[in-house]
Predict the structure of Cardiolipin synthase N-terminal domain-containing protein.
Amino acid sequence: MATKHWSDLTPAQRAAVVALGAAQFTLAVSAWVDLLRTPAGQVNGRKDVWAAVIAVNWVGPISWYRWGRRSP
């Protein structure tokens, strides 16, 4: 299979790539901000580990919101 380059994509495909990238970036930034604002006592595990986990594509931020915070 040949590698696709940006110039090979249609305008709709380019827009989809940009939109998905922006959504992923926004989700990660919101998770990092939430991590910073959450007291260490309310975090399941270490904050530095969660900061690294959040950097893992879609899985990290979703994992933070699902399993990273303790219930009040």
Notes: The mean pLDDT is 94. Residues 13-68 form one domain. Residues 11-37 form the longest helix (27 residues).
